[in-house]
Amino acid sequence: MSYQWEASFAAPVSVPSVISSIVVDELLRNGIEWVVYCPGSRNGPLGFELARRAAAGALRLQVRLDERSAAFVALGISKSTGRPAAVVTTSGTAVCNLLPAVTEANYSGIPLVLVTANRPPEALGTGASQTVEQTALLTSQVRHVQQIWSGDMLRPETNGVVRSQVCRALGIASGRRHGRPGPVQLDVPLSSGHPPEDLAAPFPRGRRDGEPWLRMPSRAVESTSSHEIDLREPTVVIAGDGADLSGLPPHIPCVAEPTVDVGDRARLHPWVLDYVLPQQVVVYGRPTLHRNVGTMLARADVDTVLVDNGEDWIYAAPHMKVLTAQPIYRHDLSPSWAEELRAVDATMRRQWAEILTDDRDRRTGLGVADTVLDTLEPGDVLWLGASNPIRDVSLTGSLPAGVEVLSNRGVAGIDGNISAAIGAALARPNRRVIALVGDLTFAYDASGLQFGRLEDVPDNLLVVVANDSGGGIFELLEQGDPKYRREPYGNTFERIYGTPQNVDIARLCAAYAVAHRTVEVPELAAALRHCRDERRLAVLEVPITRAELRDVHTRARRGVDAALDSASVLHALRETPAPSDLEYS
User: Fold this and answer.
1) Which of 1, 142, 151, 180 is the most interior residue, by most CB within 10 Å?
2) pLDDT per residue as tens, the chain (585 positions)
3) H-helix or E-strand spanning residue 322
4) CA–CA distances in Å: residue 202 to residues 98, 198, 274, 341
5) For helices 335-355 and 549-567, what crossing angle results, to 10°?
6) What's the distance, CA 142 to chain centroid?
């Protein structure tokens, strides 16, 4: 069958197949290398074209049954590579299932492209099967919604219109248009979901040499505001998720979350903020991990400088003094202040190291995190689940050099973590990926371990499940106060916060044909080293307790207080209310 784009369009062409081919071709021209596809009828023409291009080596394709999981796999790929990945779905509730991952991508600034097949416009609002107002479903969380041209007849201008629409959406997703990456939706109404009659049918060409239809250079930085920071004043730098510290002098230490690459500079223990009183605080990225960050930023006697990273939010610092795109650092930290930060940090780390020498204390998530950190090697990727695992890593040790840390910190949910870690492993096949998650996080997204028989399964992913039979994080919050374990509350805490699940993780893994092994904390290091020699997706389940977790944190806090009092290094903050025994929210 020949195809003449400039003809009268009376040729027996499949309009849905032609539109699908144009969309896929322009996605590739705009740098899309990974597509996660969910089976369906309406998106069939897109699926056939994707499979054809994947067979030719033009893209990497992963087929996933569950749209919610698929979106998180694509998110993990995008987070790991820094480049947009696409997820393709059929119409109806399939689009609804994308929302959790899209929300995470929105708040963490991760480029993600949603290609949602749709019924033709004339079918919407008629009660036809699988028709919903899907261009409005995700509007609060996507940067842009673009409905692709649709119709029963092709026109000479259709090629340019469709390609331009794809380019604009990809420019927004990657941040080239507005300087802020994030998710976008390409809604593709198709009059039929029938596969093409000719898989090799030609379609309208794009630009020569594989160029995108529209060239969209990166947006020039609009804000040139600068602010001088005098480091002779006692200064603390806080680096939250997404922080870019390239403009920070390398000798300046900072309180940085695990997902932040601090380079060669010192990473201060987060509890340092409870024991020092700076005159100014400089904030990079989006801190979401520790309560004491918010406490520090709420102080009226501390000047807060927020380094603008193009986001459309301002961190909750009610007394923030300056918002700047270009901090200019003058002078050096005073020797006395630098020594105070170093001494307090060293005290925290010594105390936590001492706590974790007790076998009883090591049989907690803290001990699991400490062991995992000790076994990491340069080049590894560490995926951290929400709730306790990422905080345990932040509290118990130092991240080894050359290890990349990833986590869903946009909205910090426990959903989608297994799927996202799988995406990171698929995108980095030559690097060992270790995911550390809790049992509830694992159970929530266990279906992420479901692979089609024809799909690539990452053999470089190891999932460590710290199984404390429930929601350990609540043990450390106000709800975990012992008084709520007594009458009249009775078993209420355990039922609505602890929420232990009746799940046999070993059998669950067996159902998904995933290797599983249960190991105690003392055996974990050896098991991790053994798994390095095996090339297969595996789960290590580590039984731990959460009953003592609150006491562990309390003893660590008291030990720090005693050590600092004895060393007389507490700053003027000793005149303010004592820090809470509770570490975070």
Assistant:
1) 142
2) 333 443 334 445 688 999 999 999 999 999 999 999 999 999 999 999 999 999 999 999 999 999 999 999 999 999 999 999 999 999 999 999 999 999 999 999 999 999 999 988 887 778 777 788 899 999 999 999 999 977 666 787 889 889 999 999 999 999 887 778 999 999 999 988 887 777 777 888 998 889 999 877 665 445 557 889 999 999 999 999 999 999 999 999 999 999 999 999 999 999 999 999 999 999 999 898 998 998 898 888 888 888 876 665 555 666 677 878 789 999 999 999 999 999 999 999 999 999 999 888 899 999 999 999 999 999 999 999 999 999 999 999 788 889 999 999 999 999 999 999 999 999 999 999 999 999 999 999 999 999 999 999 999 999 999 999 998 888 888 888 888 888 888 788 888 899 999 999 999 999 999 999 999 999 999 999 999 889 999 999 999 999 889 999 999 999 999 999 876 555 444 444 444 444 433
3) strand 320-324
4) 32, 9, 66, 66
5) 140
6) 16
Q: How far apart (Å, rounded) are the C-alpha atoms in residues 466 and 544? A: 7
pTM, two decimals, is 0.90
Query: Is 224 exposed, middle or buried (CB count within 10 Å of its CB: 0-12, 13-18, 19+)?
Result: exposed
Q: Which CATH superfamily is domain 226-342 in?
A: TPP-binding domain (3.40.50.1220)
The helix or strand, by DSSP H or E, that contains position 228, with its residue range, turns out to be: strand 226-230
Provide CATH 3.40.50.1220 ranges for the chain: 226-342
Q: Which of 46, 120, 56 is nearest to 86 (CA)?
A: 46
Q: Please report, for the chain, how many H helices and E strands are present, in that order.
A: 17, 19
Q: Which superfamily does CATH assign the domain made up of 365-547 to?
A: Thiamin diphosphate (ThDP)-binding fold, Pyr/PP domains (3.40.50.970)
Rounded distance between C-alpha atoms, residue 494 and residue 41, angstroms: 44
Query: What whole-number distance in Å separates Cα of residue 149 and Cα of residue 335?
Result: 64
Query: 455-468 burial, b for 16+ CB within 10 Å, e for fewer?
Result: eebbebbbbbbbbb
Q: How far apart are CA 192 and CA 120, in angstroms?
A: 8
Cβ count near 506 (within 10 Å):
13
Q: Which residues contact 568 (CB under 8 A, 6 or more apart)?
A: none
How far apart are the two ends of the chain, measured CA to CA in Å? 63
Please tell me the distance from the alpha carbon of residue 288 to that of residue 180, in angstroms, as a whole number. Answer: 19
Q: Is the peptide bond before 84 cis (omega within 30 degrees of 0)?
A: no
Cα dihedral across residues 50, 51, 57, 62: positive or negative: positive
Whose tokens are 């580590």? That residue is: 542
Please give the Cα distance from 128 to 368 (Å, whole number).
52
Q: Where in the chain is the domain with CATH 3.40.50.970?
A: 15-210, 365-547
Task: Select from 274, 275, 270 the least CA-distant residue to 260.
Answer: 270
- Round the CA-based radius of gyration of the chain to a whole number and report it: 26
Q: Does domain 15-210 have CATH number 3.40.50.970?
A: yes
What one-character DSSP code corresponds to residue 370? H
